[in-house]
Specification:
The complex is a heterodimer of chains A (442) and B (522). Chain A has 442 residues and is of the alpha+beta class. In chain A, 22% of the residues lie in helices and 37% in strands. Chain B is α+β, with helices and mostly antiparallel strands and 522 residues long. In chain B, α1 runs parallel beside α2 (130-140) and α3 (175-192) runs parallel beside α4 (259-274). The chains are: A alpha+beta (442), B alpha+beta (522).
Chain lengths: 442, 522
């Protein structure tokens, strides 16, 4: 489906909705093509190629609301689908808080080149993916002098996506994006039947921004090796460093508590905290939707409102709640946006390795495994893997341990942010050092 | 604009298999390799001549399927299959006292797969026209590199048993008939305790039609109903707040719903929320854990189940690789994965490769007797497929997955198990779990439980991640009760970027070697 067909489909869906009696409607048509090659233990393991397309419609009918999607895009099926949903919507309870965004919010989208679509995606040769995946595995195997590797799976892929959005009150936009990724997992022999795995990955909007295949392969093996002989450290309160690429596993509960839905439903530990200090001076994070080549860069949000830079935390103070049109109305507030974009943290002076070198006794967390957080109270408990650090040096790897606490406490313990933002995700967190956190082991 | 989550794009890592398989609760082929499986697979056969398939309405007939399978094998390959799916999901939500949100999702598409040894070529299309199907087949064909093979000259239709008999299919139920049941759960939750300040109720129903056609000439169809319901409650007391939920998930039609069922859903969610006011995180450290019957089956799912999935074992990366025939647990431990329990969430008439499902024994009297297989791993190990080849939808190739995984009853009296613990945790409800396949460490998150003091239940505890080394926990299962219960909740398992519904169950079980992620001053 080309862009013109996508526009036609979105326009037809809106017309059908109106004809069936909807006062307002919004339609998105999305299309994405994805190719992934997985190479395992010396040969091609899986090759997957797909093109997905769908229509989604939000319907506003006699003060009532529904939202639906379909991949059955045959013209008759689309007409029947939209008419059916308009009818179903009429049977719901009315909801005075449901309406499209103020059309003023559609205007003034950034004209800057956001660089989220790499033309190179159209010319990736199938053989090049295979060759890259093979080289990625070989890069990991190159460090295996003694046959300790059990298995290596390397993945290489690229995606191109596009969407068209339209609404009855004037939203009309389209955006294209691409992403390129490489990932590798290595399992190595350890005592008994244990085969610890190490993984490395990178994602980028532009192919040229990916790190070298050799570095990525070597990193995965190094990470697997690092977990050999892991054991628990004693239960206690420790200084903790969390590696950049996994910070978001802890921080997502903090950002999640800023969502309008959770605030309005009284299930957020950050309710009533707008303008209050909940973390240390070092907790300064901005949502930047226009960061060139950012993995969460976009000129519009999912309601079609144009995006802008928002301070999320400033020196530990809550600066923004993420309010979409619906929950803003329920809360009697002005909408901001329902979602964050690239999260850019204040940059520190050192990386994780330097922080560890300065640590007397503590835990370096390199991965999380399971766990959860109570969104209402902020209590959390997460499984961790990493290293026990003594006198600035790694003493032994740790596993089967937990990190537990409360979000309203732990962010006050943040004493250092790294200079090493993680760029393979929307949350570009650097490594973080906490003065004190509860870790349980033996 | 983004999809419905803040994970704007899937990271590439989501497409890889090994690490971090987990569970969220809540919300005959290839005769050449000597596999004992029957080449044309989908037994038993129907005696009567087949009627047109469901997908005939989309213009898909046997001639087209044969041609597309031939195109999939145009560069050789040992096997090819087509997986057609048409799925309709309806979702209703009650918030702030009114059923004011409806969502629907329709999926229509076909996945084409070609196997060459253990190598897979895969593509899907959401356009079922002959041209689009041919294009997908040519894409999947690239995995092979040999002389072409024609598609099957004729198809034999499989006639699987039905493990999900229903009275009222969802396609016959209009939206307005469902609304009173959400109101019922809301009223029950609100009336249960005056501290309940917010209630949300979600009900979803699914009808999925699938058809698998393979290059060995097998065709089988399945009609898969499902319904899930969730109730979440926020309670407020003296400035403190707590939240909890309850759910059920069944392969049932509208007959699943009654005032009694929804009253219980609302009241249970409310009870689980207000009890948290008396609870605190448990003290941190390692002590005995007694698992309550039912939902605690999450322990089996994470600590053992994923490790028994044969893709991890054929690759040699599971902590259980090469251990078939060995003692992995005390002799009073028997674990099964069962696709045949009537109307259970993880049950299947046939798996997503069209294979018959079964009650597959994994651990029998403490000995590991087998793995969970898809066609690739069954061929690799030279055994019959077990009917565990599952996929999220037509967008994915199948991989070995659990269905309903549970432990059979043991010799111990549940009261005696509790009495045997001087200081420990009684674990009752959970929200999620995860495992690292090779390293063997697993975790599951405790939402409601109690301290055990001198053989009796003490104060309630909450919000702690429990973590352990799967093989050690299984070896050291200390006692198994005689009170097996299957969980009724809406469990969903994630692996390889794919989500599938699963069931689980456990009798009361006492374990050691589990580290409790609590706080010191708990």
């Amino acid at each position: 489906m080309d862009e013109r067909s996508m526009r036609d489909l979105a326009g037809r869906a809106i017309s059908e909705a109106r004809a069936a009696g909807a006062q307002d409607a919004r339609a998105f048509v999305t299309r994405s093509r994805d190719v992934t090659v997985e190479w395992r233990d010396g040969k091609l393991d899986r090759i997957r190629e797909s093109t997905a397309q769908s229509l989604s419609v939000s319907l506003y009918v006699d003060g009532r609301f529904s939202a639906s999607g379909t991949s059955d895009l045959r013209p008759d099926a689309v007409a029947q689908f939209v008419r059916g949903m308009v009818g179903a919507t009429r049977t719901l309870a009315p909801d005075p808080h449901r309406h499209l965004p103020d059309p003023a919010r559609y205007a003034g989208a950034t004209q800057a080149d956001l660089q989220i679509s790499d033309p190179a995606v159209a010319t990736v040769a199938p053989d090049a993916r295979l060759a890259d995946a093979r080289r990625l595995e070989e890069a990991a195997r190159a460090g295996d002098g003694d046959g300790r590797i059990v298995s290596v799976t390397a993945g290489v892929g690229d995606t191109e996506a596009a969407w068209v959005g339209m609404s009855t009150n004037g939203f009309d936009a389209t955006e294209r994006s691409t992403s390129f990724g490489r990932s590798i997992e290595v399992a190595v022999r350890d005592a008994g039947d244990r085969k610890p795995e190490g993984y490395a990955y990178a994602d980028a909007c532009f192919a040229a921004d990916l790190p070298s295949i050799e570095a990525l392969g070597a990193e995965a093996l190094r990470r697997a090796d690092g977990q050999r002989g892991s054991k628990q450290a004693p239960t206690g309160s420790y200084e903790v460093v969390i590696e950049n690429r996994v910070v978001s596993r802890l921080a997502r509960y903090l950002f999640g508590a800023l969502a309008g839905e959770d605030l309005q439903q009284k299930s957020s530990f950050l309710e009533g905290k707008l303008g209050a200090r909940i973390g240390s001076e070092l907790l300064t994070v901005t949502s930047d939707p226009h960061l060139p080549r950012g993995l969460a860069t976009s000129a519009w949000d999912s309601e079609g409102m144009v995006t802008s830079k928002l301070p999320v935390f400033e020196k530990g103070v809550v600066k923004t709640y993420f309010l979409d049109t619906y929950y803003a109305s329920k809360l009697g507030a002005q909408p901001t946006t329902g979602e964050w974009n690239n999260l850019v943290w204040t940059k520190g002076k050192r990386d994780a390795a330097a922080m560890i070198a300065g640590m007397k006794k503590g835990i370096f967390v390199t991965d999380f495994t399971g766990g959860n957080s109570n969104g209402t109270t902020g209590d959390f408990s997460l499984g961790i893997k990493g290293f026990y650090v003594e006198k600035g040096a790694i003493a032994h790897p740790v596993s089967e341990m937990n990190l537990a606490g409360n979000h309203l406490e732990i962010w006050k313990q943040l004493v250092e942010v790294g200079n090493d933002p993680w760029t393979s995700a929307g949350n570009r967190a650097p490594s973080l050092r906490f003065k004190k956190a509860q870790c349980s082991g033996t | 604009m983004r999809d419905d989550s803040n994970q704007r794009r899937l990271t590439r890592r989501d497409f890889l298999a090994a690490a971090g398989s987990g569970l969220v609760l809540g919300p005959a082929f290839l005769a050449s390799c000597g596999a004992p499986a029957e080449p044309t697979a989908f037994v038993p056969r129907a005696a009567a001549p087949p009627a047109a398939t469901y997908f005939a309405r989309f213009g898909v007939d046997e001639a087209l399927m044969s041609r597309v399978l031939g195109e999939a094998l145009a560069r050789g390959g040992e096997y090819a299959d087509l997986y057609f799916q048409h799925e309709v999901v309806n979702y209703l939500a009650l918030e702030d006292g009114a059923v004011n949100q409806a969502y629907a999702r329709i999926k229509l598409g076909c996945g084409v797969r070609v196997l060459q040894g253990d190598q897979t070529g895969f593509a899907f299309t959401e356009d079922l026209s002959p041209e689009a199907l041919s294009s997908a087949a040519r894409t999947a064909a690239v995995v092979a590199n040999a002389a072409g093979v024609p598609g099957p000259a004729a198809f034999a239709r499989g006639a699987p048993p039905n493990y999900y008999m229903i009275d009222q299919p969802w396609s016959s139920v209009s939206l307005d008939r469902k609304i009173p049941f959400l109101d019922r759960a809301n009223a029950a939750a609100a009336a249960f305790d005056k501290r309940i300040v917010k209630v949300r109720v979600f009900v979803s129903d699914t009808e999925s039609r699938v058809l698998v056609a393979n290059s060995a000439g097998g065709i089988v169809e399945d009609f898969r109903p499902m319904t899930t319901a969730y109730c979440t409650c926020v309670a407020e007391d003296k400035g403190r707040r707590e939240e909890n939920y309850h759910s059920f998930g069944k392969r049932r039609g509208f007959e699943q719903y009654s005032d009694a069922v929804m009253t219980e859903l609302g009241e249970t969610a409310a009870r689980k929320a207000v009890v948290l006011f008396e609870a605190a995180p448990p003290p941190a450290g390692e002590y005995p854990v007694v698992l309550a019957p039912g939902l605690s089956g999450i322990l089996l799912h994470e600590a053992m189940g994923h490790g028994f999935e044969a893709d991890f074992n054929r690759k040699g990366i599971s902590v259980y690789s090469g251990r078939v025939g060995q003692k992995v647990a005390p002799e009073f431990v028997t674990i099964v994965d069962d696709g045949t329990v009537p109307n259970e969430r993880g049950s299947l008439n046939v798996d997503d490769e069209g294979q018959a499902t079964a009650r597959t024994v994994l651990v029998e009297n403490g000995v590991l007797v087998g793995y969970l297989h898809d066609l690739i791993s069954a061929r690799h190990f030279g055994v019959a497929p077990t009917g565990n080849g599952r996929r999220d939808c037509y967008m994915f190739p199948p991989v070995p997955r659990m269905r309903n995984t549970y432990m059979l009853n043991g010799p111990h009296d549940p009261a005696e198990i509790l009495r045997s613990v001087k200081k420990g945790i009684y674990a009752e409800t959970f929200s999620n779990g995860q495992v690292n396949i090779g390293a063997g460490d697993f975790s599951f998150y405790l939402k409601n439980g109690y301290l055990i003091e001198d053989g009796k239940l003490g104060r309630p505890v909450k919000d702690a991640n429990l973590i352990g080394f799967g093989p050690k926990v299984l070896e050291q299962v200390q006692m198994v009760g005689n009170d097996l219960a299957l969980d009724r909740g809406a469990g969903t398992c994630g692996k390889d970027g794919q989500r599938v519904p699963v069931g689980m169950g456990l009798p009361t079980v006492k374990c050691g070697g589990i580290s409790v992620g609590g706080v010191n001053d708990g």
